[in-house]
Structure formats: structure tokens, C-alpha cells
Amino acid sequence: MSDPAADDQPHEIIDADLAPATRSEQEQNQAAADFEKHHDKAGESSMEVKVHSPFKSYYDGQAFSISGVNATGPFDILPRHHNFITLLDACELVVRSTHGDEKIQIGGGIMHVKADKVIVFLDV
47-122 has which fold? Predict the structure, then answer.
């Protein structure tokens, strides 16, 4: 026989949608938000790029990649690149974005990459 008092006890109902997110879920949600922040509507990754000299700004905006030449040869920087600093040789710097390729002829410079931000100092 069943215990009638047991039927009077409230039953706990757990709704997965109402349960608080675990720390792991919160971290995943934050990572997804960060990922979305650095992607355009077409789903391509982007990074902040600034190319400037002491008296002129050549490029300031989001880009999918930047290509240049240093002492070891040609190279590309893509979003999520590791921290990186290099001296640039005379070359055509190419910045690729949703607006097409921006080509900048340079005589040399310094490139600094950190946390999806690329800064290129020219004429220094």
C-alpha cells in the first residue's frame, strides 16, 4: 500500500530553462558573445586595424586580414593572431575588408598585433 502522507508532499519540478546557468555555461555564453562581436553579418572574422603615420591616417576600421613584408618575407595577419610585433620592409600593405582591398604603398614601419587589434606605424 502506498503511504497517503507521501502523496501530500510537494514534488519538486525542475525546469531546465529556468535553472540558473552553471559557471561553464556562463563562460560558453560569454565566449559566444565575444565571437559574435568580432564577426560580421556574413560570419567572417574581423579585427580592428589602424594604419597611420605621424601626419596622416591611411586606414582605421575593421578588416578580415592584413598582408605585408618583413625581413623573413611576406606574411598575413588574420583575426585571433597571437601577439606579434615586427619591422615592416618597403612593400604594398594590403588591408582586406568588406569594402574591398585597401592597398597602401609603404617605405617601412612597425606593426603591432594584440587582442584582435593591429596598429601599423609608418614613417618612424
Answer: ATP Synthase; domain 1 (2.60.15)
